[in-house]
Amino acid sequence: MGFLDLFIVALMPVLKILLITALGLLLGTERIDLLGANARQILNRIVFFVFSPSLIFSNLSDTITLDSLATLWFMLLNILLTFLIGTALAWILIKITRIPQHLQGLVIGCCSAGNLGNLPLIIIPAVCEEENSPFGDSSVCSTDGETYAALSMAVGAIYIWTYTYPIMRISASKKTEEIVIDGSSNGDNNSRETSHLYSEIDTEALLPSKGCPSSEEYMDQVEVPSTGSKEKAKVTLLEKTKLLLKMIIGHIDFQKLFAPSTIAAIFGFIIGLVSPIRKILIGDDAPLRAIYSSVSLIGDAAIPCMTLIIGANLLRGLRGSGVGPSIIFGIIAIRYIIMPLLGIVIVKAANHFGMVDSNSLFQFTLMLQYALPPAMNVGTISQLLETGQSECSVIMLWTYAVAAFALTLWSTIFMLVVA
């Protein structure tokens, strides 16, 4: 199959996304105002608490089994690699462009966390349904594709709230420290109050709030006897690494970690893996099949609603902000040039060493996870932390605008590589 044929196959699902996103953008304008700020907030909450958990639960419980999970284990590692590689590249970008302290977490989030949710759920089944699809029978391909996309969505949501959120939270806390320090120079009358406030914020930002050692215990750990300067330097570096890990763990918000989507993923895994429970809920003869059918029906509304919200949220980015072109170009280069190339190398290497089988659709899904635009949850996190919201809107606008072309091109290249 030629490049042009595969390009058309890859173009169709992206066009669907563009049309729905454009509709959301239109509904969010002031003239129509069906998806204004209040409406978006309400719809976001419905998606967060109802539609998205229902979609994850129904897809995982129906498609994940012990046999399938044994062959899909590499996806968990692959998604983790996308986060780690994105973080490393973002750190290089931060050093080159000298990004302000309070925006560093946002840049790391945009480079590391891809949209592993609704985009794969749209793209992969749509590619399977195309007449010239290189992945064989459309019904088998769609079933397998939904399994891969559902697992990608569930694992991605867990990583975002356990990895990306703590990093962005640390960056936001540093902005608060800077504000407090600037305020301390306004006069001696407020110096004590400011000093006390800075102390509280600094302690909260640098030390875990629960279940971690106190500062005295940290000192006990750092003061390790050594016989030479080289050994002392090595111990200091090791202790700094431990403190950094404890700091990130201390900033994990376990209430947000166990979000509705995460809980739905846990129950979906349980039902899918435990055969007796699965037979009760899923199947034509299942006694409680009405429950599963109802949840599945509700979950079907998640994809169009999430895509409409993406379009409406992009409207804020048209108003502009103080984000420099170098930052935007850097994020685009990381997400659409460097990471997809690394994704091809990683997946083909994993296949060469027997970590991934020869299933072309599975390899395509793994590669696609490196070429996705930033996760919309990054914008949600910036709103929760009340920092970098306008900058995030501009970054999302440009990255999703470029994604229309980049996703089509990389999807075509991925199909050529795995075919």
Structure overview:
The structure is a single chain. By secondary structure, the chain is mostly helical. It has one domain (3-174, 258-324, 344-404): Up-down Bundle (Na+/H+ antiporter like fold), CATH 1.20.1530. The chain has helices spanning 3-27, 37-63, 66-97, 101-112, 118-129, 138-183, 191-206, 215-222, 229-250, 254-257, 260-273, 275-281, 289-299, 302-314, 325-352, 360-368, 376-385, 389-418. Helix 4 packs parallel to helix 15. Mean pLDDT is 81; it is low at 187-234. One of its GO terms (biological process) is auxin-activated signaling pathway. One of its GO terms (cellular component) is endoplasmic reticulum membrane. It is found in: Endoplasmic reticulum membrane. Keywords: Auxin signaling pathway, Endoplasmic reticulum, Membrane, Transmembrane, Transmembrane helix, Transport. It is a multi-pass membrane protein.
Distance N terminus to C terminus? 9 Å
Percent strand equals under 5%
CATH topology: Na+/H+ antiporter like fold
Give the number of helices: 18
Strands, total number: 0
Overall spatial form: globular
Q: What's the level 1 CATH class? A: Mainly Alpha
Number of domains: 1
Q: What proportion of the residues is helical, as a percent range? A: over 70%
Structural class: mainly alpha
Order of helices and strands: HHHHHHHHHHHHHHHHHH
Mean pLDDT: 81
Which stretches of 5+ consecutive residues score pLDDT under 50?
187-234
